[in-house]
Amino acid sequence: MPFSCWNQTRFRTASAVTKIPRLFIKILSLHPLIFQNMKNLILFLLCVLLYAPVSHGQSVSKKELRKNTTTKVWKTPVKGTRYLDGLTKYDAKGRKVEEIEYGSSGFMRMRCTYEYDQNNRVVREVVYDERNKPYRIHKIEYNADGTKKRQLNYNTKGNLLSVKEYEYIRN
User: Fold this and answer.
1) Which of 9, 45, 148, 160 has the fewest CB atoms below 10 angstroms from its CB?
2) Which of 15, 31, 51 is the last residue of a domain?
3) pTM of the complete model
4) Band of the pLDDT at 1, cuts 50, 70, 90?
């Protein structure tokens, strides 16, 4: 029986083929001449099953992968030595809690720490200078829908330096 006689419903009920993406089903239905005999069909299905990603219905989010990790970024200039360019630390919930940038000679250029509210939104950022002294504090406010409302920028003495307001225009 040629492949073109099989309907897609019957094809999807085969237990070994339930994880084949819809794209392959579409390819199979568009090109029935390729599968004139059962040997070609079986070879094709084996190739698809061997090379299709196996997820078992589970996908790992970026946040899950970042839990309790530190990410280091190394830079190697064409003419020069490899050096640590940056470092980012994540907490047990996968949230960024600290970010450090380094210069080519290994000195710290900037450091920033992050604090979160109960909805996992950044509500405070403290920016440190190259001597690891705080010099800017950003407090972030949010709208009821979770979008940023404004960012208040303070110096270390608590003086308000500037306000950044966010406007959202829905199209």
Assistant:
1) 9
2) 51
3) 0.63
4) very low
